[in-house]
Amino acid sequence: MYGQNPAHHPGNPGIVHKAQSLIGRNVGISFTNGQGVSGVICGVRHNEIYVLQYLYQKQFATFHYPVSGIQDIHPFPPCQQSGGHSHGHGQGPYY
């Protein structure tokens, strides 16, 4: 459905290659306008990256973003062990 487009990608071939290598993975995407989103990359097609994002309750939606507006893509890091204590609190920012 969101297969790779074999055509030349004039926008940003580095981002296209990175996105293709991260299909099916949880990622954070930073845009050139300073905003960002997180989700699962579903595919790259027609110079756009398709990302499955959570909306609310049981609803998810696939959004597509032009490669030209993407600054970088970052795969999610693995979770850190909290020493066996789970109190439902976030672990804070991950740097």
Topology:
Elements: H1 13-21, E1 26-31, E2 36-45, E3 48-56, E4 59-66, E5 70-75
Antiparallel strand pairs: 1-2, 1-5, 2-3, 3-4
Q: How would you spell out the order of helices and strands?
A: HEEEEE
Which spans of ≥5 residues are poorly predicted at pLDDT below 50? 1-9
* Proportion of residues in β-strands: 35-45%
Number of helices: 1
Q: If strands are numbered along the chain, what order do they take across the biggest sheet?
A: 4-3-2-1-5
Structure class: mainly beta
Largest sheet: 5 strands, antiparallel
- Through-space gap between termini: 35 Å
What is the CA-atom radius of gyration, in angstroms?
15 Å
Average per-residue pLDDT, rounded, comes to: 85
Q: Roughly how much helix do the residues carry, as a percent range? A: under 10%
β-strand number: 5
Q: Tell the overall outline.
A: globular
Explain this structure.
The protein has 95 residues and is mainly beta. It has one helix spanning 13-21; strands at 26-31, 36-45, 48-56, 59-66, 70-75.
What are its keywords?
5 strands; about 40% strand; five-stranded antiparallel β-sheet; about 100 residues
Task: Provide a quick synopsis of the model.
The chain is mostly beta strands. Helices cover 9% and strands 41% of the residues.
